[in-house]
Amino acid sequence: MVEYLRTAFHDALKKLGIDFPKEEIQFEIPKQVQHGDFATNVALQLARLEKSNPREIAERLIEALELDPAMVSTVEPAGPGFINIRMNPGYVVSRVSEILETGEAFGNVDTGRGRSANVEWVSANPTGPLHAGHGRQVCLGAAISNLLEWAGWKVTREYYFNNAGVQMQNLGRSVQIRYLQALGEEVEMEKGLYNGEYIKDIAAEIKEEFGEAKRNESIDFFRKRGEEWCFARIKKTLERLEVHHDIFFNEDTLYKDGKIDEVLSLLREKGLVYDREGAVWFRSTKFGAEKDRVFVKSTGEPTYRLPDVAYHREKILRGYDLVIDIFGADHIATIPDVLAAVRAMDLPTDHVRVVIHQMVSFVEGGETVKMSKRSANVYSLDDLIDDVGADVVKYFFVMRAANTHLDFDLELAREQSEKNPVYYLQYAHARIASLIRFAESEGVDLEAAPDLALLTHEAEITLARKLLDFPGVVDDCAESLEPHRVCNFLQDVATAFHKFYQECRIVTENQALTTARIALCRATRYTIANGLSILGITAPESM
RNA sequence: GCGCCCGUAGCUCAGGUGGAUAGAGCAUCUGCCUUCUAAGCAGAGGGUCGUAGGUUCGAGUCCUACCGGGCGCGCCA
Asked: Is A344 helix (H, G, I), strand (E, B) or coil?
């Protein structure tokens, strides 16, 4: 649609002897309905370049335009020099047939052109269950992956499994202590170790299985058991949210395959690492950082940054066209170092995009419940799912822009009523499903070809117009990696539908009109269901 | 102290690459169910878009400085 207008405007400009890049002709959907379906500010932009009156340019431009009157009804200058374009309502409504034809694929766009994308997210340490705050990352990444797929990318979903390093040793030691305590030994839990109740569960399982046989077992055994337990638990939680990864990349393979050493020697060749005080340092200051960073501790163990570099190198070497990292704001500081190191190894990073999301606060009764990772009793993601349900979890975590702090209102989320925005969408879907069932029971032939031209009511046209925006919304959201805009769009669709339902009786004696309105309902249903599927939310047949 | 993010209605937040009279949900108040799902619809009140400058035809949006909040600034991840 916009493309059609853009071409027409470009041709008109050429006729006036004005050379203006086609791609820079902007069309927006005006906030005010009186301003039409589309508006462009080319005349205002040109006023600057041509040094003349924008209003006058607009008028000359309109004169030169050649548009199909079946599609466009009016084009008029407005305000300081906008050009408002109104589509022919009959044309808008006729395009509903495209939605019915594409059905479950409506909303797909092909900007990705089958190129490959890798999305890495969650990547929580396997040192415990996912806590409620992880939910944002989990749901955001899933929605972004889905969006990219809808936009024509071939997506690989990946989880970087941090199963090496000090924290894993701590986990092992924690389990060991709990196990020994369970055997009646006088051992104190040490500072800085994992205190959660789940550690006792792991220890209890070991005791159950081996009795006292592991009394003198090394930490390594307990570490392994702990890792397996945590991994299984994390996967189970992800499963409950229907979040799937194609690749679980184990950090320890970077060691086994010598990738860590490879990176070190590559950097050493370039003189980008040096030894000091028994540690190996990376010259991050060469890349604008305020201080150099330790890559290998004096104990000989790498810090987390080095495997991060090696891991990113691996991902980039795999040759994806787009590499996306999703991180919490608390990890923001490491990104420039990692990318700088990767670039230093002569690898491109232009196609790496990092989505940073801010932290989450859970609010209950006006009080903020702060989550802390290593305290004894954490509110886990499983608890949250039990508490409010998977659909609500997914919606609430994605409905706000990632870049802003999120207040997760537990009371509102728990509310199974009209107050909860999730139900507003689901209710619209269920209402349509019910309507279609009713129409069938009244003997309406759903297969009959609708005469969409019968849809002339303002509420019908507004709804149709809104539905047709969907592919553009998918495209924009995928480009900006901002799934919350899908939520906003779906709210608008539901509002337009409820309004239509309120104003227009759908199943009536008038068969032709009934068929046309049912067609519009079906188009709405596809749009809502498809949008919800991007968010991973179920579209109920009844409520 | 330095870096990144945020500051929009009582509360939580939307506001494509600057555009026309700043929006939604919740909360408060008022109407609408003998008729396809009232988990809905219609309407009312509520704002100096943190503050002060700047850029320009035009700023919630861009720049600068302050103020307020969050997160980082480990040989933790």
From this structure: helix
